[in-house]
Design a protein that fits this description.
By secondary structure, the chain is an all-alpha fold. It contains 2 helices and no strands.
Length: 81
């Protein structure tokens, strides 16, 4: 007999792409607009918001590190010096 896999409402799937971010944003807007959310939906909403925050932080870090790079040309190996 197969066991049914139940999704955990405390965890949301990690957001790795801009497309994932946009889809999660739409879902958050949809869920937040509903007044009669049960506790499971509220927990899922909070998990999605945490994942959205993580993605935004990673995007900001990537933007900052890209600005710090002075030379965008090909990298040389240590043996080329």
């Amino acid at each position: 007999m197969k066991r049914a896999h139940r999704k955990s409402p405390e965890r949301a799937r990690p957001i790795r792409t801009k497309r994932d971010f946009e889809g999660a944003s739409k879902l958050v807007k949809n869920l937040s607009g509903k007044a009669d959310l049960d506790s499971t939906a509220e927990i899922r909403l909070q998990a999605l918001l945490r994942e959205l925050d993580k993605f935004e932080e990673l995007e900001e870090e990537d933007d900052n590190s890209a600005e710090e790079i002075e030379y965008a040309g090909p990298r040389r190996r240590w043996s080329d010096d």
